């Protein structure tokens, strides 16, 4: 495999592990892999060599990171089905309570088959997100033009509605599920509320809220 692909996979993996560690997952089994070890795992060609299974330190929820280095756009339905197939190498036990990230080399556009596959998976209670490896080489959250995104806790929604004087979160401006990489990194699903803190020329800082929709 070409050197730049190895570099992309290694750097994007480091970024994703950092993000998942901040979300509370134990990354210890995977944090010390070198680019050469990544290359060896790929050259070995054993399916799912790059796969990572992480457990949350507090609630023992799981996050599974899978890799697809060949084009998968034409077989996404089969891929998603395989996650729930006990006979498949891709089978994930307790799938409904597991966050699944699939890293691909081909482009993941805002509105395409990856978005549709994630929506279809969600309708079957599977929290699935696709990421192009290139998009994770650098931390997307740290871009100078990207404001801070935070997921509002469910228990804080009632107080937030009172504070904003709204009857329902449906009254908030929306942000679409899976289309925004910040939404994917947060693990957001439709109905969730995101707090966005951004610079303001008048007050120095401005806080806005968005509700995630399909």
UniProtKB/TrEMBL annotation:
GO molecular function: DNA binding; DNA-directed RNA polymerase activity
Transcription among keywords: yes
Alphabetic keyword roster: Transcription
A Gene Ontology biological process term: tRNA transcription by RNA polymerase III
Residue ranges annotated for the RNA polymerase subunit H/Rpb5 C-terminal domain, each copy included: 141-212
InterPro entries: Arch_Rpo5/euc_Rpb5 (IPR014381), RNA_pol_Rpb5_N_sf (IPR036710), RNA_pol_subH/Rpb5_C (IPR000783), RPB5-like_sf (IPR035913)
Keyword Transcription in record: yes
Name this polypeptide is given: RNA polymerase subunit H/Rpb5 C-terminal domain-containing protein
